[in-house]
Design brief:
By secondary structure, the protein is α+β, with helices and mostly antiparallel strands. About 35% of the residues lie in helices and about 30% in strands. A nine-stranded mixed β-sheet has the order 7-8-6-5-4-3-2-1-9, with helices on both faces. The chain is globular, with a radius of gyration of 16 Å. The protein binds coenzyme A. The site of coenzyme A has 23 residues, from helix 2, strand 5, helix 4, strand 6 and helix 5. Coenzyme A (COA) binds next to helix 2, strand 5, helix 4, strand 6 and helix 5.
């Protein structure tokens, strides 16, 4: 069974087949498609995408559960669709540098935004990726008008490294220095991993 990671406000669980219908529903929203740079998919394509994300060794994806929405107790291995509010991914897509990972975050459910879930999910994902894949630099691509996302990543210490005029998109990076890793562990607190 794949890994789940429990934090204070969120629990990161593997992207399972049971999550696909709700995920697909989210990705009908043009604003979310634009903010995440995604293409609309049919439900069938979304099932294929879920499989590809779980099988590709260069990708790690988690569904974000809002702890406040979990009915009764969290059970590792259960999808807890009732509490799914978004996803967080990394993609080790730099051919020249396998320890560089691009990170993506989405808190799709509006009722769960602004509660610190996005920030905690990114911090947990980066800590997990550092520990398990020895990632030394994280990269994020953000539309220049996405002020919320820019603020989230800048506050974590990401700095702009390039700008694409064609896509109106900024690339920001965060190197994993010893002091940054220490700070991340302090911020994320006690992370419980189930495997
Ligand atoms: C960007 C996104 C993930 C933020 O998630 P969230 O859970 O609402 O954010 P958090 O509550 O964790 O807040 C993290 C930081 O974001 C910023 N932020 C959050 N809500 C904000 C708002 N309404 N206005 C301005 N800044 C805001 C703040 O800097 C905040 O840090 P602070 O609480 O220390 O001030 C969410 O808005 C989202 O999924 N948007 C659509 C998809 C997207 O844009 N993904 C990113 C693609 S690069």
């Amino acid at each position: 069974m794949k890994v789940s990671v429990e934090g204070e406000k969120v629990i990161l669980v593997p992207y399972m087949r049971e999550h696909v219908p709700k995920y697909h529903e989210w990705m009908q929203d043009p604003l979310l498609l634009q903010a995440t740079g995604s293409e609309p998919l049919t439900l069938e394509q979304e099932y294929e995408m879920q499989l590809s994300w779980t099988q590709d060794p260069l990708k790690q994806t988690f569904i974000v559960l809002d702890r406040e929405l979990i009915v009764e107790n969290f059970i590792h291995g259960e999808p807890h669709v009732e509490a799914m509010v978004g996803d967080v991914n990394i993609y080790m897509n730099d051919l020249d540098d396998p320890q560089m990972a691009e990170v993506e975050i989405m808190i799709a459910e509006l009722k769960s935004r602004g509660k610190g879930l996005g920030k905690e999910s990114v911090l947990m994902m980066m800590t997990f990726a550092f520990d398990n894949f020895k990632i030394h630099t994280f990269r994020v691509k953000i539309g220049e008008l996405n002020h919320v996302s820019l603020s989230l990543f800048q506050k974590l210490g990401f700095k702009e490294t390039s700008y694409s005029k064609i896509f109106n998109e900024m690339t920001l990076e965060l190197p994993m220095t010893e002091s940054k890793i220490f700070e991340m562990r302090q911020l994320v607190g006690n992370m419980v991993t189930h495997s």
